User: Fold this.
Amino acid sequence: MSMKEAGMGIGVRITTATTTVIKTTPGMLYRIIIGTTAAGAITINDGAATLAVLKASIPEGSYAIGVHFRTSLSIVTAGNSDITVVYE
Assistant:
Protein backbone atom coordinates (compact mmCIF):
# COMPACT_ATOMS: atom_id res chain seq x y z
CA MET A 1 0.00 0.00 0.00
CA SER A 2 1.40 3.41 -0.94
CA MET A 3 1.51 6.36 1.49
CA LYS A 4 -1.22 8.04 -0.57
CA GLU A 5 -3.53 5.04 -0.24
CA ALA A 6 -2.96 5.03 3.52
CA GLY A 7 -4.00 8.71 3.70
CA MET A 8 -0.54 9.84 4.76
CA GLY A 9 0.48 11.89 1.70
CA ILE A 10 2.85 11.22 -1.15
CA GLY A 11 6.51 10.41 -0.56
CA VAL A 12 9.39 11.54 -2.80
CA ARG A 13 12.90 10.27 -2.08
CA ILE A 14 15.95 12.46 -2.77
CA THR A 15 19.48 11.06 -2.54
CA THR A 16 21.70 13.61 -4.32
CA ALA A 17 22.75 17.24 -4.03
CA THR A 18 20.14 18.86 -6.25
CA THR A 19 17.10 21.09 -6.53
CA THR A 20 13.95 18.96 -6.70
CA VAL A 21 10.60 20.45 -7.68
CA ILE A 22 8.13 18.36 -5.71
CA LYS A 23 4.83 20.01 -6.67
CA THR A 24 3.93 22.98 -8.90
CA THR A 25 0.59 23.81 -7.28
CA PRO A 26 -0.44 24.68 -3.69
CA GLY A 27 -0.44 21.91 -1.12
CA MET A 28 0.72 20.71 2.28
CA LEU A 29 4.16 19.58 3.42
CA TYR A 30 3.69 17.04 6.20
CA ARG A 31 7.19 15.90 7.09
CA ILE A 32 10.74 15.25 5.99
CA ILE A 33 12.28 11.91 6.86
CA ILE A 34 16.08 11.88 7.12
CA GLY A 35 17.30 8.39 6.20
CA THR A 36 20.98 9.14 6.82
CA THR A 37 22.47 12.10 8.64
CA ALA A 38 22.18 15.08 6.29
CA ALA A 39 25.39 15.71 4.36
CA GLY A 40 24.44 19.36 3.78
CA ALA A 41 21.71 21.87 4.50
CA ILE A 42 18.19 21.10 3.25
CA THR A 43 16.23 24.15 2.10
CA ILE A 44 12.44 24.03 1.77
CA ASN A 45 10.99 26.55 -0.71
CA ASP A 46 7.50 27.80 -1.60
CA GLY A 47 8.07 29.25 -5.05
CA ALA A 48 10.94 31.75 -4.60
CA ALA A 49 10.39 32.09 -0.82
CA THR A 50 12.33 30.02 1.71
CA LEU A 51 10.04 28.31 4.22
CA ALA A 52 12.72 26.62 6.33
CA VAL A 53 16.30 25.39 6.36
CA LEU A 54 17.30 22.16 8.07
CA LYS A 55 20.95 22.39 9.09
CA ALA A 56 23.71 20.16 7.78
CA SER A 57 24.32 17.11 9.96
CA ILE A 58 20.71 16.96 11.19
CA PRO A 59 20.35 13.42 12.58
CA GLU A 60 18.22 10.64 11.15
CA GLY A 61 14.55 10.76 12.01
CA SER A 62 11.14 12.04 10.98
CA TYR A 63 10.67 15.80 11.26
CA ALA A 64 7.09 17.08 11.23
CA ILE A 65 6.86 20.30 9.20
CA GLY A 66 3.09 20.75 8.86
CA VAL A 67 3.05 23.80 6.62
CA HIS A 68 0.90 24.80 3.66
CA PHE A 69 2.71 26.06 0.56
CA ARG A 70 0.89 28.53 -1.67
CA THR A 71 2.77 28.40 -4.97
CA SER A 72 4.95 25.32 -5.33
CA LEU A 73 7.18 23.08 -3.25
CA SER A 74 10.85 22.56 -4.00
CA ILE A 75 13.66 21.10 -1.92
CA VAL A 76 17.33 22.05 -2.29
CA THR A 77 19.79 19.52 -0.90
CA ALA A 78 23.31 20.88 -0.53
CA GLY A 79 24.84 17.43 -0.06
CA ASN A 80 24.18 13.80 -0.91
CA SER A 81 21.56 13.15 1.75
CA ASP A 82 18.96 10.38 1.81
CA ILE A 83 15.65 12.08 2.55
CA THR A 84 11.96 11.48 1.87
CA VAL A 85 9.59 14.42 1.51
CA VAL A 86 5.98 13.66 2.47
CA TYR A 87 3.41 16.05 1.01
CA GLU A 88 0.00 16.36 -0.57
User: Anything to note?
Assistant: The chain has a mean pLDDT of 91. Strands lie at 10-14, 18-23, 27-34, 42-46, 49-54, 61-69, 73-77, 83-87.
